[in-house]
Specification:
alpha+beta, four-stranded antiparallel sheet, PH-domain like, single chain
C-alpha cells in the first residue's frame, strides 16, 4: 500500500511550543544552533566594544547579556512565524508536499531526520535542518486514523533510510 495520504488541519501555537521543546530536549541541532548564535553574538559585541579601546568587565558582561538574549529569543521565533491557516499535507513513499496559504514546500524522506509521535499525540516530521511538520491528533477523525498515518509515514521514512544504507554499502 504505497498510495499517498492527504490530510488538512490547522496547528496551534501550543503545538509549535511543545514541538520546539521536544526537539530541543531530544536532539542536538537546536542546541548547536543556539550555541553558535550565542558565540557569534558574544564575539560581535566584543569586537564592536573593543573599537572604543580596552575591554573591561562591563564590556564582557554586556556581551554575555546580548548572547543570552539572542538565545532566549530563539524559541519565540517559531511562535511569531506561526501560521494558523489550514494546511494541506500530502505524504507518500517519496516524501511530502505541504501547502498553507500561498506557501508550499516539498521534502524528500532523505531530508528528514526522524518521524516521532510525542506524548501529546502530535506527529513530528523533523527535518535535518531542524524545521518540522507538526501534525496534531485533531487532524484525524479518530485516533485509529492518526495511528495508521503515523505508522505509514514512519515506514516510508524507514524504507528510505534502509535504501540509503544499502546504497552506501554497495558503493564501497
Amino acid at each position: 500500500m504505497d498510495e499517498a495520504l492527504t490530510i488538512e488541519y490547522a496547528s496551534s501555537r501550543r503545538d509549535v511550543w511543545q514541538a520546539y521543546w521536544y526537539a530541543w530536549r531530544h536532539g542536538s541541532v537546536l542546541k548547536k544552533s543556539q550555541a553558535t548564535v550565542a558565540v557569534m553574538v558574544l564575539v560581535a559585541v566584543l569586537l564592536v566594544r573593543s573599537g572604543a579601546g580596552r575591554l573591561g568587565l562591563h564590556d564582557l558582561l554586556m556581551a554575555l547579556l546580548y548572547a543570552v538574549l539572542s538565545v532566549v529569543w530563539m524559541p519565540l521565533w517559531p511562535l511569531l512565524r506561526f501560521k494558523k491557516a489550514t494546511r494541506m499535507l500530502r505524504v507518500d513513499a517519496q516524501g511530502f508536499i505541504t501547502n498553507i496559504g500561498h506557501l508550499s514546500a516539498v521534502k524528500a524522506w532523505p531530508d528528514v531526520e526522524r518521524v516521532v509521535k510525542v506524548p501529546s499525540g502530535n506527529v513530528l516530521i523533523i527535518g535535518r535542518n531542524a524545521n518540522m511538520m507538526i501534525i496534531p491528533p485533531r487532524a484525524f477523525a479518530v485516533a485509529a486514523e492518526a495511528d495508521q498515518f503515523y505508522a505509514r509515514v514512519q515506514a516510508w521514512h524507514a524504507e528510505t533510510l534502509t535504501q540509503a544504507a544499502k546504497d552506501s554499502h554497495t558503493r564501497r
